[in-house]
Write a structure and sequence with these properties.
mainly beta; globular; 5 strands; single chain
């Protein structure tokens, strides 16, 4: 099982939609459930917002979407940018 809490804004996620399709998104926001936000992304669940990078359909690319953490089946961490020190 993937630990969905390991992803960050800027990472890429692969997740399965409720229609059984997959999407690859770049994470733009994480939404946790907390006392200040008991609803989470929706219906009391943690989740994410993202921009579709790939889904097998060119029509989806660039669309903004949201999903629940428990839909994620792969996380690709994007490396942090290290400033060029002129070397």
């Amino acid at each position: 099982m993937i630990n969905q809490r390991e992803y960050q804004i800027g990472d890429r996620l692969f997740y399965e939609t409720f229609m059984g399709r997959w999407r690859e998104v770049k994470v733009t926001n994480r939404v946790e459930c907390s006392p200040d936000n008991p609803d989470g992304i929706k219906n009391g669940h943690a989740g994410f917002d993202g921009i579709v990078i790939d889904s097998g359909s060119r029509d989806d690319i660039g669309h903004t979407v949201w999903g629940y953490d428990d839909q994620i089946f792969q996380i690709v961490h994007e490396p942090e940018m290290i400033p060029d020190r002129g070397r």
